[in-house]
Amino acid sequence: AAAGLSYVGAYVINTYKSYDNFLQDKYALLPAVIIICVAVVMFIIGLIGCCATFRESRVGLGLFFAIILVIFIAEVSAFVLGFVYREKVKTDVQGTMHSVFESYDGKNPESSVVDYLQEQLHCCGVKNYSDWTTTQWFNSTRNNSVPLSCCRQDAKNCTGRLDQPQEL
Question: Which Pfam family name is an example for this entry (predicted)?
Fold first, then answer.
C-alpha cells in the first residue's frame, strides 16, 4: 500500500507540471506531498506491525492498534473536511480557469496549456463551449469560432465554428 501511495503522489506531482497554470496556488501540491508522507508513515507502521507480530509482543501490538486507530480517525476527518470544502475548491479552480481562458490568445504559454487541457480532457471551455464567447480572443477574432482544440477528435473538417456545435 505504501508503494502504491508513493506512486500516486509522485504521479500527481509530475502531472502538476502540465496544469500548473490552472493551479496557481502552490498549495495545490500539498495533497500529493501529504500522500507521500502518509506512504512513508504507512511503511514504518507496517514494519512495526510485522515486528510486533513476529515477536508476539503485546506492547508492540497495542502500539500498532493505537496507531491504526489514530490513522482511521485522521482519514475520517480528512473525508469530512473534503466534503465540507468541496464547493470552495470548485469555485477557486473555476475562477482560476476563467482567468487563464481570458488570457488566451493562441500564442502565449497559457494558450498552449488551455489547448492541451481541452484536448486531453475532451472538453471545451470551463463549463461548455459558450464560455469562449465572453473572452477577448473570441471578440478579437470575429469569426464566431472557438479554438481548434475544442474540436472532437473524430470530427474530420472541424473549424471550431459555433454554428456547428456537434463537432465541438
Answer: Tetraspanin
